[in-house]
Every structure is written in structure tokens, then in C-alpha cells.
Amino acid sequence: MFAELIRPSPIEWPKETLHMRGVEAEIAFRIGRDIAPRAEPLSEDEVFAAIDSVHVAIEVVDTRLADWKNADRLWVLADNQSNGGFVYDPVGVPWRGQDFTDAPVKLTIDGRVAVEGRGGNPAGDPRWLLVWLINHCAHHRGGVSAGAFVTTGSYTGMIFVDPGATVEAEFPGLGRAAVHFA
After folding, report:
1. What is the per-residue pLDDT for 81?
2. Strand, helix or coil at 12?
3. CA distances from 150 to 1, 9, 14 (A)
4. What is the rounded CA–CA span in Å between residue 154 and residue 38?
């Protein structure tokens, strides 16, 4: 994600920056210390020791592609994986190795519940994705800097919202994040 697209909650998102407004409730891990580049994989324990906190987040999905649903995967990659923004709860909770495979989640739009349930993200345990990504970055991308967020996918699926909508994601026990689209 580009740094200018990462913003703390609550936030009013400027309307002129988006072509569409998709939202997804996610859990993000914040890295607490630099992870140096290395060829050998980090163990799960090493990755977990580098995590400082866990945050509720809303991914703002946007694209510049006219036919994004049918676009070649490389076009989507070139379009920043359709990431138009990232809104996070700046407080978060300390990382204690929590299991988020059956996390409760609620996504509200303009005060009405759009999604409420329990579960994990489509890949299963997000900690597995966290370990994979950290190792990928350590081996191929020059490491990971302290303060970076790792988000591991939607717990609610993508929902489109209209201009003027206010969206809130909540994971009980973790916190909440909110964005208003001007």
C-alpha cells in the first residue's frame, strides 16, 4: 500500500480520490521492530515476536480499470491490487498470539448492520498469511520496517457504498475503525 493511502480512524475520505467505493473489514498486524533481509525463513515464533499490535482496519477498494472484474491479474497488480486506501484503528491491542480464525465481526453502513457474524478470512488463519508475507518480504523485498502494517484479507467480503456513506468495522475485543466518504 502506498503511504499516502494509509490513514488513522476516524477519517473523512475525500470524494475526488475514488472511482468506486468498496469496503472490507480486516484485521491488521503492526510490526514492532525492523525485520532484516535474510535468505533463510523466519520461524513462526520469530515472526510473532516482531508483532507489536493488532488493529481493526477497513480496506477501501478502488480501481482505475474499466472492466476490473475481467482484467488480467497483471493489470490488477499494476493497479495496486485495487487498493484505494487503508483506514486503521490507531489504538489497537497488544499482540499476544491471538487466534483470529473464528473472530466476531460487524460492518455497519450508515448505522445499519451490513454484515455480522463469526469466522475468519477466506485463507483460514490469518497468522499463516502473516508468516508467509513476512518471510517473502525478508527474502525478496529487503525486509520489513517497524511500524508497517500487514493486513491479511477481508472478513466480510467487499461491499460497495455510495458517496456520503459512513462505514464502521468492529471486531469485539479488538476495537473499531470508521470512514466517512465525502
Report:
1. 59
2. strand
3. 10, 17, 24
4. 29
Grid cell for residue 98: 491471538
The predicted model scores a pTM of 0.89
| Among candidate residues 7, 9, 101, 95, the one with its CA nearest the CA of residue 54 | 95
Which residue do the cell numbers 529487503 mark?
A: 142
Residue 86 DSSP code:
E
Q: How many CB atoms lie within 10 A of CB 153?
A: 15
Burial level of 6, CB count in 10 A (0-12/13-18/19+)?
middle
Identify which of 2, 6, 37 has the alpha carbon closest to the alpha carbon of residue 145: 37
Place of cell 475503525: 177
Residue 10 preceded by cis peptide, ω within 30: yes
Please report which residue ranges of the chain form alpha helices under DSSP H: 44-50, 73-78, 126-140
* pLDDT tens figures, 129-156: 899 999 999 999 999 999 999 998 899 9
